[in-house]
Amino acid sequence: MSRTKWQPYLYLAPAAIILLAFSIYPVFQAAHMSVYTDWGKKSERFAGLRNYDALLSRGEFWHSLAVSVWYAVGTVPVALLLSFLIANLLFQKLRALGLYRVIYFLPYVTSTVAAAIVWRWIFDPNDRGIVNSVFNWLGLPAQRWYQEAAGVFTLIGEHFGLSLPSWAGGPSLALVCVMIFSIWHALGFDIVIFLAGLSAIPKEMHEAADIDGATAFQRLRHITLPLLSPTLFFLIVVSVIRSFQTFNQIYIMTPQESTGSAQNVTMLIFNKLWVDHQECMAAAVALLLFLIVLGLTTFQMRVLGPRVHY
To answer: Do the Cβ atoms of 296 and 233 come closer than 8 Å?
Structure first.
């Protein structure tokens, strides 16, 4: 083989080795561990699919999956909508535009753990919390925020004297606090990607639409959104994957919420591994999460992919 043929593979080798060592190998290792019990111990034995049967027959896994779904539904659409609106504003000719872009991007580059600690102080259930202080000033009852396991719709219903069934309670108030933080934290990344997509749209398209008398809504519907569809598709896929992998903010903001109302699948993996010391069960949960995310990504590729205009 000539030098020109093997040289590209040499350049790719470092990235390929890292990918194999830290992405591909752990998946197969987790799959291997998940069909055993007492991994790495003298009592280690092959368990087949019994770990998966135990997980799927208990309510703990389904509850954590429901929390993950609530989290994705509550964060992805809101973050994308807000970031799209802000990106359109930042795309205009404004004074100190660069400063505004830096301000909006700062939360994303800030440490998630450090930012979550600050937001935990904002939602502090005691009177020293900023939100409860504002509630007291407005004459509203203080809330337990990240310690509250009751559903947010249930709490709203109780405030108006309504009684909702348990299935209509919605996500817990503790999870909603995490959602608010996550939306704030993700805005910077989404805004930058939207700005890149808006910059790629030819100005001649909008100028031609203005000459034809198109309204702002018509330009948005027939020019901006179709030409922005690749960017939007990318952000939807990435945001859904990111939402199912969320860990830091839930771990930091809801440590005292003992009922597990904010325990998503990644928190379940952590608890199985470090609290219950059930490594094989944790590996089984991790593999199930991998399959769920893979299935969702494939579904989005099949359903949304053909609707993207390149």
So the answer is: no
Q: What is the DSSP-derived secondary structure letter of residue 23? A: I
- Per the CB < 8 A criterion, the answer to whether 48 and 31 are in contact is no
Domains, the chain? 46-307 (1.10.3720.10)
Specify the DSSP class assigned to residue 141.
P
**pLDDT tens figures, 263-291:** 999 999 999 999 888 999 999 999 999 99
Instruction: Return the beta strands (E) in the chain as ranges.
Output: 36-37, 45-46
Largest interatomic CA distance in the chain: 79
Name residue 282's amino acid. Answer: A
Using DSSP's 3-state secondary structure scheme, residue 172 falls into: strand
DSSP 166: G
For residue 172, what pLDDT is reported?
Answer: 92
Half-sphere exposure in the Cβ direction for 202 (13 Å, CA):
5
Contact 271/264 with Cβ under 8 angstroms?
A: no
For the record, the structure tokens of 81 come out as 């909508």
CA 40 and chain centroid, separation: 33
* Whole-number Å distance between alpha carbons of 284 and 54: 10
106: burial class by Cβ within 10 Å (0-12, 13-18, 19+)? Answer: exposed
Do 125 and 142 touch, CB atoms closer than 8 A? yes
The pLDDT of residue 259 is 63
Return the axis-axis angle of helices 279-303 and 25-33, rounded to nearest 10°. Answer: 130
Residue showing tokens 């859904």: 240
| Spatial separation of the C-alpha atoms in residues 131 and 307, rounded to whole Å | 42
pLDDT value, residue 256: 66
CA distances from 46 to 37, 50, 54, 83, 106 (A): 7, 9, 15, 49, 49
Distance separating alpha carbons of residues 308 and 300, to the nearest angstrom: 11
Model's pTM, two decimal places?
0.91
